[in-house]
Amino acid sequence: MQPNFDKQSQRSEFRQKREQFVDALSPQDRALAFSKIPSPLAQYLVPGKIVAGYIAIGSEVDPAALMVQAHKMGCDIALPHVTSKTAPMRFLRWAPGDILVPGPFGLQQPAENAPLCTPDIVLAPLVAFDDRLMRLGQGAGHYDRALSLLDQAVAIGLAWSVQHAPAVASDIWDMPLDAILTEKSWMTL
Fold first, then answer.
1. DSSP E strand boundaries for 21-75
2. Per-residue pLDDT tens for 145-164?
3. Domain with 53 in it: what CATH number?
């Protein structure tokens, strides 16, 4: 069977796979997944580093426990702030327990007046990934545009293992990740 090589088809296919996988997890397995920082990620979490996470939507990997642990290790935390499909995504400081406000696309994000920052590590959600560490996102290009400007940041995709694709459709502006963390493994090139 020929894999789908257009982004729209792949998004549909892998969103469905992700939903089915997460729906089949027991509450205990879902709570355990991504509950502890693995040693390959811990090496980047030096006190004073800024770690950008995100607030998960639906069946996306939830990085909340990782962000709390990174904060306890002395890292500052940031979250994306989005205003529209075309406006650049910014990263704003946030600490576990701080208030979040509704944003576009169902996002929960820091208030617009939170301090702007430049992350050292970016934990990125995704729809699918491949062995080249290419990331298929939601389609607005926010992370690709942001990562293209953060050339010193380490970009780590968070995904369920079922989101691994034989090949992800990509364009020249799509930014590869430095690593992928799934509930089963840590992948780098």
1. 50-52
2. 999 999 899 999 999 999 99
3. 3.40.50.10420
